Amino acid sequence: MSKWADLPCDVLLQIIHRLSSIDDIIISSVVCKSWQSLVNSFEKPPLPPSCPWLMLAEENEQSDKSNKEQSQTQTRSFFNLLDTKVYNFKLPEVAGRKYFGTSLGWLLTIGTDLHINLLHPLSKHLLSLPPQATFRCQFKCYIRPELLSRVFLKKAVLSKSPWNSATHKCDCDCVIMVIYGQHGKLAFTRPGYKAWIDIKSSRHGYADIVFYKGKFYAVDFNGVTVVCCFDGNKKARAKAIVPAPEGINMNIQRHIQKYIVESSGDLLLVSRFRGGHFYSKFYSFEEEFDYKENESNDEDPKDDFEDENSQDDVEDEGTKDESDRKDINDKPYVTIRFKVQKLERCTQEGSEFKYKWVKVDSLGDQTLFVGDSSSLSLTASSLNGIKPNCIYFTDDDLYLFSWTHNGGGSDMGVFSMEDATIKPHYSGQSHSFFCSPLWYI
User: Where is the KIB1-4 beta-propeller domain positioned along the sequence (predicted)?
Assistant: First the structure.
């Protein structure tokens, strides 16, 4: 056979079915168009890669680009950590859209039309979710759709795959939970729902979510952790189970990003500390919009306790004056270290909380992946080339992107828990002002 593209479909199917890993199947789909078409025709969405792939930013962002340049954005590049190679895939479904890595191989996307979708890039399954206008909390003042699509959603996590491969239909038992809005609130929906539903909570300013042992847990910017309790299909409330960790100055929370991740059966809190030019000169600079709610807040404050340190950091890069712009540089912020803590039951007499955070000095053979995707823990020894006892991170603070010349994407690397050093995991450059590289998991 002179050309791989000329292989009969039945022979090609036999080859693909004998591949030992989903990574090989993904790579085989880029051999030629006929191979890609066959892989995409599978009714059951393929599993995600065994190790997260780094989904790189668009080569040309859509604003003010020619038609030729816009067509180039239909191809997206993925960096494979295991073989350190870059693979290209045709993904017109994400061109010009803000997207988040959820889990199980799915991306949540939102465009300037403010429509929200779940996309499986490998199978091309595309599921529509309720649009942005159905969220309860909205900005009072007008914000351009282009900006609103970039800043409205913060994080997205799934409880299970939203596609039922047995029925070839949406799985209505899947719960999609997000952090949204200027004040970082929690909301959820399911396939088939017409709107997003708020999680009843007196807190806001949430930073990350995880689905752990059948329940959703969320952590706010102070480190307070809540569990989400569902009262029927369309009601849910958040209950605080862990107070903010001790020993962290609440006055510098803007420097610290929080993640929450399941690792070897434990629940971990990961704190990411940033420093650099931005924090030394612009820490007090913030832009605020007036805010309103579509409905009155009928939450019972006894369900939780109040948060006085929410993050109000939505800003249009076009609002900076010239005096601000002269201080923009190539790398105004940088990650300097991480701290990891584990959830343990609290045995202290008289404590109002059942759990507490305890410092972790080593991850052992585990490796963590954090950023604009669902936080993930993997066993390093099962993945050739992945470093154990390390944290792989991407650049995920959208607010800081406008303080750079080329957008976010520089603050990425591998943090070693053993010696606190940071080394690169991707040697190339990939920048964006609205959607920097993230982990596809």
Answer: 78-416
